[in-house]
User: Fold this.
Amino acid sequence: MFAGKGTASDNFAIADGLEYVLGRLAATTYRILDLPGTATLATISPVDVFIDRDGAYFTTPDASGNITLTLPATGLRLTMEAQAARALMVLHELGHQLGVLFTPDAGNVGLNEANTRRVLEGCFTIGSDGVWR
Ligand SMILES: [Zn+2]
Assistant:
């Protein structure tokens, strides 16, 4: 199931980490509601995430199936496949839920954008068409 160095201990370490991440995702309740301010998603606790019903998460994709997101600090516009854009948002919140790498960024658009860019650049690629996927 796992590729890597090929030892049983490597596979155990990968499975152990994966179980931790998947367990947190499975335990999470995602609530769709009206979020005040400009937040699109908010991690309320390690197992509670709020999603703004009018936020970017529910943006209707264009005819190509893409969504354009605007990063809050620089105004940089990202065109992403809709599913990738939603994954980016969920993974950003997962960073908060797991308490690794991310520090709280509520009300700090610069840090929020930096956290988003870490996920974007670590988990997605940009195609020659300029679309992130
Ligand atoms: Zn954040």
Remarks:
- The chain is about 40% helix and 20% strand.
